[in-house]
């Protein structure tokens, strides 16, 4: 099953957030409903990793809830549930989860700062450009200030 970052965000957004295993179950259900196929969990690794890298998905540690982090729609996502997704809440029997945007923002801010540091160390100008654009989305998405990270990026891009 080929799935875009926005489709992944659309699936998790139906629930507020899903654990990794719940997301994999949801995608397996969608593949079966679409064409009767099975989903190879390894094939999902790259799209999920790419969505996390692009901040279309982010990890969130709920104060109460599952022991593992939830994947939630991130600041760079345009959530778009794939075909047949409307039945997932009934099939998975997972209640909608409330997300504390401030708590999620703190986690994403830390991950963003680490991504900036990694890109600076690697001298990856393309990634720095992507991160610069993502900073504005992140600030609109959660109450965080990324001015210091933008200044670090601007210095490196001069």
Task: Describe the protein in words.
With 158 residues, the protein is mainly alpha-helical. It has two domains: 88 residues, Arc Repressor Mutant, subunit A; 57 residues, no CATH class. The chain contains seven helices and two strands, in the order αααββαααα. The protein has a two-stranded antiparallel sheet.
Main beta sheet: strand number and arrangement? 2 strands, antiparallel
Strand content: 5-15%
Q: Give a count of the beta strands, DSSP E runs of length 2 or more.
A: 2
Unreliable runs, pLDDT <50, ≥5 residues?
none
Strand adjacency order, main sheet: 1-2
User: Average pLDDT value?
Assistant: 92
CATH class of the largest domain: Mainly Alpha
Ends apart, CA distance between termini: 42 Å
What is the CA-atom radius of gyration, in angstroms? 16 Å
CATH architecture of the largest domain: Orthogonal Bundle
Task: Specify the overall morphology.
Answer: globular
The third-level CATH topology of the largest domain is Arc Repressor Mutant, subunit A
């Amino acid at each position: 099953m080929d799935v875009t970052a926005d489709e992944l965000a659309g699936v998790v957004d139906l629930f507020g957030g899903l654990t990794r295993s719940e997301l994999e179950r949801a995608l397996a259900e969608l593949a079966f409903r679409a064409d009767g196929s099975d989903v190879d969990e390894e094939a999902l690794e790259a799209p999920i990793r790419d969505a996390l890298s692009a901040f279309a998905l982010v990890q969130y540690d709920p104060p109460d809830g599952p022991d593992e982090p939830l994947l939630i729609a991130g600041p760079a996502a345009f959530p778009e549930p794939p075909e047949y997704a409307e039945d997932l809440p009934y099939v998975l029997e997972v209640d909608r989860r409330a997300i504390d945007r401030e708590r999620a923002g703190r986690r994403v801010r830390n991950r963003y700062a680490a991504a900036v540091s990694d890109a600076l160390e690697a001298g990856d100008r393309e990634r720095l450009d992507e991160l610069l654009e993502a900073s504005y989305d992140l600030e609109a998405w959660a109450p965080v200030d990324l001015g210091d990270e933008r200044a670090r990026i601007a210095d490196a891009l001069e």
